[in-house]
Amino acid sequence: MSRITALRSRAPGLSIYLAAFVFYLAIGLYLNVTVQFILGDTLSRVAAAQAVLFSRFPHLSAIGFVFTPLTAIVQLPVVAFSRIWPVITADAISAVIMSASFMAGAVFMLFGITRDRALPWTMSSAVTVLFAINPMIVFYGGNGMSEAPFVFFLLWAVRRLLRWVDSDDVHDLTTCGIALGLAYLVRYDAVAATIAVAVVVAIRTWTRAPEEGRRRRVLLDVVLVAGPAFFAFVVWAATSWLVTGNAFEQFESQYGNAAILRESGGRAPESLVSAIKFPIIEIGILAPGLVVVVGVVALVRGVRRRWWPFVVPVMVFGSVLAFQALTYIRGSTFGFLRFYIVAIPLLAVLALLMVPARRVLPAKRPG
Question: Taking every annotated instance into account, which residue ranges of this chain make up the domain Glycosyltransferase RgtA/B/C/D-like (predicted)?
């Protein structure tokens, strides 16, 4: 493929990314600068980035260890210019740029799934646009919080895993692992997704690997996909312990989630029925057609005997939803609607799987 042909093939995706970025950036600037609707979590990430560069003793550990670090780290290059243009931090513009960039990337990844599967342009465009203009996606694409990068990294992982279940390409598997590792540095929910992916990879490798050396292949593939997230977990916990004396400030610190729950009077729901009902309602609000789409896709996949593309998004996004539901039922977290935002990309990916792929990536390894 010539360079010109390669550029032409990438042009639609790049155009979609730029259009989505400008759209989310405009929404974010309107909310933060014009309306002055700035969320507390957004300001906390901006303040963390400021502390790294402009505190009395500037140092990287000033970023803090209650929240995961990536959303603040990526703001550092923009925050560095806040002395010249103070509105960058005063109105949390650096956070808006961060979330707009990542949510546009999420739209790009969803569109990339349609191109990997060579789906019809009408289907590709409709699902991509409907995802991009979803009010929840628009709001969190412009408000500077952690939902945008989390959705991006999970969609990146899902895209690569969808490729891998057909291609068995180690590059796809490794990239999926990197995406999960970065997702952990955004939200702790990524632990659930990593475990789910490790299970999928282990079973898929076991079923298609030659009998000779099968166990070694399974172990190697699981290490490749789960290793980056495990490494991120160990390094972040060890760094927190060395600096603060607590490995998990989010749970042990007076500023962590557990302390906030205690101070706000948070507790487990009064009955198990209401506790289970609440997450179901939250997911239903965000993805009202999810149950129907799951049923249709399961039926289509069952008839065609191609289950693995269906299993991938259900396990990755479903594990995060299950984790949030379980922690809410146990009274370990708040019942915020944003915690279930991954129901939206789950619905979008499943909608794409309703149409058979026109192109299946060839297997890279024998067996």
Answer: 92-236
Residue 358 neighbours by CB under 8 Å, 6+ apart: 117, 118, 119, 120
- 11 found inside a domain: yes
Buried b (16+ CB within 10 A) or exposed e, 308-318: bbbbbbbbbbb
User: How much is the pTM?
Assistant: 0.93
Residue 87 lies in a domain: yes
**pLDDT tens digits, one per residue of 14-60:** 999 999 999 999 999 999 999 999 999 999 999 999 999 998 888 88
Q: By C-alpha distance, which of 48, 41, 131, 69 is closest to 334?
A: 41
For residue 366, tell me if it sits in a domain. Answer: no
Total number of domains in the chain? 1
Phi, psi of 29 (to 5 degrees): -65, -40
Is residue 127 packed enough to be buried (19+ CB in 10 Å), middle (13-18) or exposed (0-12)?
A: buried
Q: Is residue 159 part of a domain?
A: no
Query: What is the per-residue pLDDT for 3?
Result: 59
Taking phi over 0 as left and psi of -120 to 50 as alpha, with beta for the rest, 336 belongs to beta
Average pLDDT over residues 322-335: 89
In angstroms, the CA 97 to CA 100 distance is: 5
Residues, the chain: 367
Comparing CA positions, the residue from 110, 98, 224, 204 lying closest to residue 156 is 110
Lowest mean pLDDT among 106-110, 129-133, 351-355: 351-355
Q: Are 344 and 148 in contact (CB under 8 A)?
A: no
